[in-house]
Design a protein that fits this description.
3% strand; globular; 205 residues; mainly alpha; two-stranded antiparallel sheet
Length: 205
């Protein structure tokens, strides 16, 4: 990933964007339970978002390589510690500003609509708008670097979800990145992801 090429402020912004992208389509938990597991004694005020282990490891690696941390937490390692202690399953408080903002946006919707794709997109876009507010558009290089790394994260499980794609397109439109550049970055990220997967498979044979 290209985060090392960014100036320090953009490194921090990219980490926030990556976490938002990672959390945008992960399962919502109420008191540690998914929607179809809710019971009459579930504390619905304890809202959290399930953390994917692969995403956590990737963002944690980026924190170390960039020398930056997610705002509002010492690192994503703190998220893992909370998971191991059962914190997130019991509705532990958010460990970063991005997670806190995303949960706050989700809470503005009725419970039965929170997991709908359109709700997840609306909530994530609201946080995205806050992250990108007042961000400079003077230099074209940093946004393209950030977009490429965001695409790579979205491809971590082999494909980009509809929710992730909506966020990527919203980021593209904010910085007025042309469609052909978006598609070229996507093609290169898919090719890189495919080669990495093939290499891992070869090593593990």
């Amino acid at each position: 990933m290209l985060i090392k090429m960014l100036p320090k402020p953009e490194k921090g912004l990219l980490l926030d964007l990556l976490q938002l992208l990672a959390l945008s389509d992960n399962p919502i938990l109420w008191d540690g339970k998914r929607y179809d597991e809710l019971t009459s004694d579930t504390d619905l005020s304890k809202l959290s978002i399930q953390v994917d282990e692969l995403e956590r490891e990737l963002i944690s690696d980026l924190e170390r390589s960039s020398g930056q941390s997610l705002r509002g937490s010492s690192s994503v390692v703190g998220v893992l510690a909370g998971m191991r202690a059962g914190g997130l399953k019991s509705g532990k408080a958010p460990t970063s500003i991005v997670e806190e903002q995303l949960i706050a946006e989700l809470k503005t919707f009725p419970i039965h609509k929170m997991e709908l794709p359109e709700t997840r997109v609306a909530a994530a876009k609201a946080v995205l708008d806050k992250l990108l507010e007042d961000q400079s558009k003077d230099r074209p290089e940093p946004p393209k670097i950030m977009l490429f790394d965001m695409i790579l994260l979205a491809l971590r499980d082999g494909s980009i979800s509809s929710i992730e794609r909506e966020l990527l397109k919203a980021f593209q439109h904010h910085y007025q990145i042309q469609d052909f550049i978006f598609e070229e970055l996507l093609d290169r990220a898919e090719a890189l992801n495919s080669e990495v997967s093939k290499t891992i498979a070869l090593v593990l044979e």
